[in-house]
Design brief:
Length: 298
Amino acid sequence: MTLQTSVILPQNDSVLLIRESIFQLVDFDHFAAVFVNQVIYWREKMGRQFYKTDQDFADELHISIHKFRRLKQETLAKFPFIKTSLKKIPARTHYELDIESLNNALAKLKLPAKAKNNHRLRKKAQTSLPSAEQTSVSKPAETITETKTEITKKTTTEKNPVVVSLDCFSDQEQPAAKKKLSNLNSSQQLAVLAVIQCAIQNSSIKNKIGYLHAVVKSVQDGTFTPAPPAKKVLTPEEKSQKKKADKIAEAQREQLVQQQYLQQQATYKKAQEQAGKKTESKPREKCPLSGLLNKMRG
């Protein structure tokens, strides 16, 4: 048995670190510091404003969604350099970082002397930049073993491999679609994708990921309704045969209607003739006043 001298970390292990400057900025609140670091990380990675759901952030911070919402409300109220807005339907929280305001706040901090030359954000690095360059948070230049400062996104092992094609989603939507479909088995993935494709063909869906989320949730809740079977695509020969059969059926229907009409006309005519014969055979009644009128005329 060999003696192990190093720690073997799990595969896809994520790193959650707190910069001391951010930790001091948020009054040494661990969860708030991780949240602010996470916002900085995603803003720097995307290069623009980004959107994340409350559940995504809660998963990354390893806290409940209710605790994260309280944390977000308190943090946004204290630190105006993090700006949020709701866009699209269903509403998504978009995060924007006022980097100049953040850098000004960091420049006012007084870090301990021991943190002067380590991998954390340094006051000197912030204040020595020209005004045009103070729109970005400076990155450390130490070795990899000492500079694991970026808070990486929590990576989760897929429960099930995705066996369906995601061509109906855009390149940006495919990672999110793959993550949601990985919660289902292969047969459920096929059924869900059939519903998505049917909905896309019959209507214009603006938020495909939101629609996919609702369908996946219905599968998990047991309220899922499979898509109707697709109509058979006829060949040109089958279409021609079907058109001829439809014409024959239409001609037969018109012939039957004509026969019924002629029978009704014959029956009506016969009834009229019988009514006329009865009227002619009935004797005409003599008016009792006719004799008196004749006498008066004479």
